[in-house]
Write a structure and sequence with these properties.
heterodimer, A: 189 residues, mainly alpha, three-stranded antiparallel β-sheet, 5 helices, 69% helix, elongated, B: 188 residues, 6 helices, 3 strands, 65% helix, 5% strand
Chain lengths: 189, 188
């Protein structure tokens, strides 16, 4: 029994390591398109919370973008540059983990991976939304102080910190455990 | 027209199915505990006092150890706080590069998983040590990347090594949970 368990874990580690490179390649190829999708989706989400709609998230290149406010003077309109690709590299981890589970038919693996991707896409849009709000609340000097109180600055700051570090990095494990924790909790199953 | 002879199907007595949360109680408990511990751990390390008195000295220790290894590799680096510098390149090790994230994810997962405390403590000690070894390799490799392949430093820094360090924590946890945690046994 212990040996079967060990074999399963060893096969999982091997599969995940083998899946890492192909998944990384696919993610690299899809990144420019996904960055565009993320920027448009997050901009629309931010605009739901402001009136008039002044937020733009223009691309600088394949990986970088700006947070831009249309109500700022033209010289200062590109207010903050950030690397969009850094927001979603957890897809590599997610793909390798979901595709590497041994003892599960490929169809089921892919279906579970699809659901996990869907959750991750929503998470990424939400993370970028928080990132823009964090920039507005804490990164624009006197403008931030004039428009956001202490509570708001802490709320957006802590929210961005938690989403950008623990939950962005922990999300693949969380989703994997959501689908496969049973295999660890009840190895007989 | 021939009539098909139908054989009566004996119906098993309907067993009332338990609600979703009861059927998956252990999984849900694990996931909720994991999220709470993860969020709590990261909130804790974001407190200024803890950052200044625990995280920064810890990160400075990583910088010293990495600098020592880089000097063994002939890089002639000097260390000042969390900064490692040489005539060719310099890095400042900050949160996100000190392995704390992977450690906290591993810690939250181990503590949330049902297991004996002895298994948990052994897993934590060995797992955290392994994560820090991987992180040390990351810092040294990144410094060398900055010196010899500066064009791929950004991608290497944020995507490749971040993924490797987090993945090492995740795989260590899965291995521990599968091999050593024995969730069927009562937690001590």
């Amino acid at each position: 029994m212990a040996s079967a368990r060990g074999n399963w874990a060893a096969r999982l580690v091997r599969n995940v390591l083998l899946a890492l490179l192909p998944v990384w390649l696919v993610w690299s190829l899809l990144t420019p398109a996904y960055n565009r999708f993320l920027l448009v989706s997050a901009r629309n989400l931010v605009r739901l919370t402001e009136s008039p709609s002044v937020t733009e998230l223009p691309r600088r290149d394949e990986h970088f973008a700006y947070v831009q406010r249309l109500d700022f003077p033209p010289a200062k309109s590109l207010v903050h540059s950030f690397r969009v690709t850094d927001l979603h590299f957890h897809f590599v981890l997610l793909g390798a983990l979901f595709l590497g589970v041994p003892g599960i038919p490929w169809r089921v693996r892919l279906a579970n991976f699809g659901w996990a991707c869907l959750v991750t896409v929503f998470f990424d849009i939400f993370l970028l939304f928080f990132y823009v709000k964090f920039v507005y609340a804490t990164q624009l000097g006197a403008w931030s102080l004039a428009h956001y109180g202490a509570f708001a600055r802490n709320f957006w700051g802590l929210g961005k910190h938690l989403l950008d570090l623990p939950f962005k990095l922990g999300l693949p494990l969380l989703l994997w455990a959501g689908f496969y924790a049973r295999m660890l909790l009840d190895p007989a199953a | 027209m021939a009539r098909r002879k139908e054989t009566p199907v004996s119906k098993a007595p309907a067993v009332p199915q338990e609600p979703f949360w009861r059927r998956n109680r252990r999984e849900i408990t694990f996931l909720v505990l994991f999220v709470v511990l993860l969020g709590g751990g990261f909130t804790l390390v974001s407190v200024n006092w803890i950052n200044d008195h625990a995280i920064e000295p810890f990160t400075a220790g990583i910088a010293r150890l990495s600098g020592f290894i880089l000097n063994l590799l002939g890089q002639q680096v000097t260390m000042r706080g969390t900064i490692i510098s040489s005539p060719h390149f310099a890095v400042n090790i900050r949160n996100g590069c000190n392995g704390i994230e992977a450690m906290l994810i591993f810690l939250a997962a181990v503590l949330a998983f049902p297991a004996r405390w002895r298994s948990r403590l052994a897993g934590l000690a060995l797992g955290i040590l392994a994560i820090q070894v991987v992180n040390l390799i990351r810092v040294v490799a990144l410094f060398l990347t900055g010196v010899y392949f500066p064009k791929i430093f950004d991608t290497s820094h944020t995507v490749i090594w971040q993924t490797i360090v987090i993945l090492s924590g995740v795989l260590l946890w899965i291995y521990w949970a599968n091999r050593f945690a024995r969730p069927g046994e009562p937690a001590a």
